[in-house]
Amino acid sequence: MKRLIVLLGVAGVSLSAVFVRWSTAPSLVLAFYRMAFSVLLLLPLAFARRGEFRALRRRELSLSLLSGAFLGVHFACYFESLRWTSIAAAVVLVDTEVLFVALASVLVLRKKLSRRAWTAVLLAFGGSVAVALADSGGGGTALRGNLFALTGSVCMAVYTMLGAVCRRTLSTTVYTTLVYTSAAGTVLAAALAGGQALIGWGPVNLLAGLGMAVFCTLLGHSVFSWGLKYLPPAFISTANLLEPVLASVWGLLLFGERPGVLVVFGGTLILLGIGLYSREEA
């Protein structure tokens, strides 16, 4: 039953690209809607944990807020990538986050990877190059979207590494409340600095933000955090590989998007590499 719940969480996360495609607001505004709604929905749980908030140490608070800032940039880049490239390319590239975590572990933490782990990283890297360059001749729009997706992936990797430190001492509710609040504040500041209006975009964008907050954030990413308490991390990592597949299916069924040969080939290499690396780490 717990594994089924996690798989349903993956299905929820895969809907993110669908909500973005249905929306018309700028990426920063849409990212703000998603994070703001997520915070509002978490407030009752956060209130029940108010004692933990009062006991926060400065280091925990600072790292959590910094982690949230990177999460906000991740969502803004990911949403923007979907304006320029296909759902299949954007999702599979943004999911290469685990590879940037691996490289950072080697360069920053001096971690040693096995030969199989390096093989997995190189496989996924080659696939990323193939996907990033797919359709790059079509006015450069696809390449622009793919680069946004890769930037979002790097930001997600930083968020993950900071989160790993924070979660040693913070509960899921406290950490996610801090992170989502920081993410909302980050994209809000960026939107205001760019002169973008936060209102006047119509109900469809508010509903898209609410839909992502419910299905993709609370019933998606939060389910993964819950699942790590009861299931092996290898299962969570492997289950996450279904997200690009499901998102591509949504793109085909709802928007008639057929991934190109290079995207399919590169995406297969990426998923294979991530799967091998996750298995090796486990």
Give a quick precis of the structure:
The chain is mainly alpha-helical and 282 residues long.
Account of the 3D structure:
With 282 residues, this protein is mainly α. The chain has one domain. The chain is built from 14 helices and no strands. It has helices at 2-14, 16-22, 27-48, 50-54, 58-84, 87-94, 97-107, 115-133, 141-166, 172-193, 203-227, 233-240, 242-255, 261-281. Helix 1 (2-14) packs parallel to helix 12 (233-240), helix 1 (2-14) crosses helix 13 (242-255) and helix 7 (97-107) packs across helix 9 (141-166). The protein is globular.
SSE topology:
Layout: H1 2-14, H2 16-22, H3 27-48, H4 50-54, H5 58-84, H6 87-94, H7 97-107, H8 115-133, H9 141-166, H10 172-193, H11 203-227, H12 233-240, H13 242-255, H14 261-281
User: Strand portion, in percent?
Assistant: under 5%
Helix content: over 70%
| Strand runs, count | 0
Would you identify the regions where 5 or more consecutive residues have pLDDT less than 50?
Answer: none
Characterize the main sheet: none
- Counted by DSSP, the helix tally is 14
Principal-axis shape: globular
Q: Roughly how many Å is the radius of gyration? A: 18 Å
Structural class: mainly alpha
Element string (H = helix, E = strand) = HHHHHHHHHHHHHH
Please give the alpha-carbon distance between the first and last residues.
Answer: 22 Å
Overall domain count: 1
For the residues shown, what is the average pLDDT? 85
Descriptors for this entry?
mainly alpha; 81% helix; 282 residues; globular; single chain
